[in-house]
Amino acid sequence: MRGGGGVMRRSLRIRSAVVTLVVAATLLGPFAADSVGDGSSSSAFAYATGGPMGLGYDYLGRPVAPQLLAGGQALVFTAALAVVLSQALALAVGMWMAVGGRAVALVRFGLDVLLIVPMVVVALIAFRTTGSSLVAAIPVVVVLNLPFATRYYQAAAEPLLSTGFAEQARVAGDRLPTVCAREIVPVLARPILTECGLGFISAVYLMATVSFLGAGEADSGFVWSTMVSENLPGLPLNPWACLAPVAAIVALTVPLSLLVDETGARAETHGTDGTERKR
Asked: Residues 72, 78, 80, CA angle at the centre, nearest 5°?
């Protein structure tokens, strides 16, 4: 039992280190882009090979390597902001729905209706009408996550509200919002982090899809998904112009997905307070 727990902890540390390294490289990449080359000026024929780091040149003859280094920071920042806003709102609404009230059924119905709205289309329209800004997709990510996240937090909070420590806090005179903030939220710390990881991956994929489909409407800067869309016609000539940003998106999301899976597996074998469950 202890040996298995040790292996799981080591695996969790390794995956956490990989995710930290990838995110740090993505955020710091723009600061190193200028030392690799000028990604905004044409210095070769379209889709020429060679160039900095051997990644060749894009459809305008600009080096791919500095674009690759600069293309992930905006994606990470906007996705992270969308996750923080969506999860904070979903947690508040889920807690309120767990407490119960007359309007809970009506709010749940409204959230379920949002599931039939084609969010990718809405996000694409917002992306194009705002000059190809990823920030325009943030409200869409928030709305898209609400139906699932609120149901998740409601189901997680309802049994905790009837536990002894929550009842004791209410008997002591604490109001329900105070009980939720002081007693319930700390217990849900691990599920909240897991949900944030899943939300971040979904936000990255949605924003990447929107910027891929909306590429060419305006100059939105260097974004990995936009690089793929713009350089797709030259795939036979310089495949790295497309494959490098695709690999960057995979490197950003797959390790985080594995970390979320590991965290979920650890949560299944341990209680919410971190103690190992008896079998």
From this structure: 95
Between CA 272 and CA 249 the distance in angstroms is 32
- CA separation for the pair 19, 252 (Å, rounded): 7
Is 227 within 8 Å of 70 (Cβ atoms)?
Answer: no
**What is the tens place of the pLDDT at every residue in 37-78?**
888 888 889 999 998 999 999 999 999 999 999 989 988 999
Query: What does the longest C-alpha to C-alpha distance in the chain come to?
Result: 75
- State mean pLDDT over 236-249: 93
HEC per residue, 187-233: CCHHHHHHHHHHHHHHHHHHHHHHHHHCCCCCCCCCCHHHHHHHHHH
Helix axes 73-99, 189-213, angle to 10 degrees: 130
Which residues contact residue 189 at a Cβ distance below 8 angstroms, ignoring those fewer than 6 apart?
Answer: none
- Which helix (H) or strand (E) segment holds residue 102: the answer is none
Which pTM value belongs to this model? 0.83
pLDDT tens-digit map of 153-166: 999 888 888 888 88
Instruction: Tell me how far CA of residue 275 lies from CA of 1, 126, 159, 237, 266, in angstroms.
Output: 13, 46, 19, 56, 11
